[in-house]
Amino acid sequence: MSELQAFITLGFRHITDFEAMDHILFLLVLAAIYRARDWRNSLWVISAFTVGHSVTLALAVMGAVVVPARLVEFLIPLTIVATCVENLFVRDRAYAWWGGRYRPVFAGVFGLVHGAGFANYLRDLFVAPIAVPLFGFNVGIELGQIVVLALTAAALAGFDRCVGAVAPRFGSPLRLRVVAVSVLVAVVAARWAVERSPW
Amino acid sequence: MRMLWAVGAAGALVLHPLHTTLTQLSYDAGNRVALITIRAFADDFHAAARGVSDSAAFAYAAAGFTLTDRDGRGLALEWCGVRRTGDLLWLCLRAPAPGGLAGLRVHARLLFDRFEDQINIVQASYGARRVSLLFSRGDLPQPLP
């Protein structure tokens, strides 16, 4: 196995592990508003998230920025809650600000925060030359996210079908799904934010 | 709701820890010894080694990291110290390897007794080669080409 493959595997396993629940829930709420046919938009948003966390990860591992771990641990669940709130309040994206195209920017900025969470562990572990490990780790994270996204999309499509078949009077299954996922995830993330509060 | 709370509890305990060690394995051709540097997070390692003394660290490291020659004999590891930088321990080991590193079998089981998701990476550099091996729970020893 090459060094690149080893770190791709490390990144992939890291993001697909149950303990990566904070990142997985963030991906879930990012993806919750999309249908299967919107997969390009979904992939675009997830990739923006990857770019964001790659930037902070690289800067932190190189020592260019130092982010207090306790603050990052608190901010990560807040990004999840903010995404849930956005999901709940923006009902029609066609009429949303900038036609709803701000979402990748939003995901990229929040990715900066999540990247700092990775960095606190990796900064100590990587030593020069860091380019290959860092690149490999990020590629692994991205591949892992695509797998999580695919599984999420399948689960959400299943949810839509069940709702459509069992309770058609509830209206749009998509809206019901967005509300259900966003409320449940917001409850979990709000609990994390309270427990991780540095104050 | 109880399940939701359990998910919340899992995330609240620790923020996405990375259970990994990184071992650099190189060869000193002049003295014919394998040089091993294990980087591990100090709190995890000390907890697994059940102590912070050099002897506890060496006993645990030597049990968790093994080199075996082509005939299946384990190479005798020697302790050459430990240093700490921040949260990280740098453990130094060496082993006489008169035949070089090619063909040796490596097994890195460090912290598998502690974490289900532990991954150990071994980066070996010898001659013109640079090889990475990745170990997770249940993996068998892997040969160096």
Can you give a write-up of this model?
- The complex is a heterodimer of chains A (199) and B (145).
- Chain A has 199 residues and is mainly alpha-helical.
- Helices cover 75% and strands 0% of the residues of chain A.
- Chain A has one domain.
- Chain A starts with a helix and ends with a helix.
- The model of chain A has no long low-confidence stretch (mean pLDDT 84).
- Chain B is of the alpha+beta class and 145 residues long.
- In chain B, strand 4 and strand 5 form a beta hairpin.
- Residues 7-14 of chain B have low confidence and may be disordered.
- A six-stranded mixed beta sheet of chain B has the order 4-5-2-1-7-8. A three-stranded antiparallel beta sheet of chain B has the order 3-6-9.
- In chain B, helix 2 crosses helix 3 (54-64).
- The chains are: A mainly alpha (199), B alpha+beta (145).
Helix and strand layout, with pairings?
The complex is a heterodimer of chains A (about 200) and B (about 140).
Chain A: H1 3-15, H2 21-31, H3 39-61, H4 69-89, H5 103-125, H6 131-166, H7 173-195
Helix pairs in contact in A: 1-6, 2-4, 2-6, 2-7, 3-5, 3-6, 4-5, 4-7, 6-7
Chain B: H1 2-13, E1 20-28, E2 33-41, H2 42-49, H3 54-64, E3 65-68, E4 78-85, E5 88-96, E6 105-108, E7 119-126, E8 129-136, E9 142-143
Parallel strand pairs in B: 1-7
Antiparallel strand pairs in B: 1-2, 2-5, 3-6, 4-5, 6-9, 7-8
Helix pairs in contact in B: 2-3
